[in-house]
Amino acid sequence: MIVNISEAKANLSKLIDMAYHGEEVVIAKNNLPLVDLVVHKPKGKRILGLLAGKIDIPEHFSDADNDIDDMFYGD
User: Fold this and answer.
1) Given Cys at both, which of 3, 34, 64, 72 links 7, Cβ 3.0 to 4.6 Å?
2) Is 28:52 a contact under the CB 8 Å cutoff?
């Protein structure tokens, strides 16, 4: 089903229900298809620690830099 934006605005709840139940809904502008209305599919949980062991952060990374401190706070 292809619907123009103005019709989609007026019938959004109905179109969402249709897409949720498996119907193909395409939203168009001047009859030119722009987007598909699809059911959200969660991507899953984030995986933490993907870079563990792949990068090296120096121990002095978070140490204060006197020159920068002087620029912000003065001598």
Assistant:
1) 3
2) no
pLDDT of amino acid 40: 93
Residue 70: inside a domain: no
Whether residue 7 lies inside any domain: the answer is yes
The answer as to whether 42 is a domain residue is no
Yes or no: say if 36 and 24 are a contact pair by the CB < 8 Å rule.
yes
Residue 12 falls inside a structural domain: yes
pLDDT at 75 exceeding the cut of 80: no
- How far apart (Å, rounded) are the C-alpha atoms in residues 34 and 43? 23
Q: What is the pLDDT of residues 6-34, one digit of tens each?
A: 999 999 999 999 999 999 999 999 999 99
Domain count, the chain: 1
Determine phi and psi for 25, rounding to 5 degrees: -125, 125
**4: CB partners within 8 A, 6+ apart:** 27, 28, 29, 30, 31
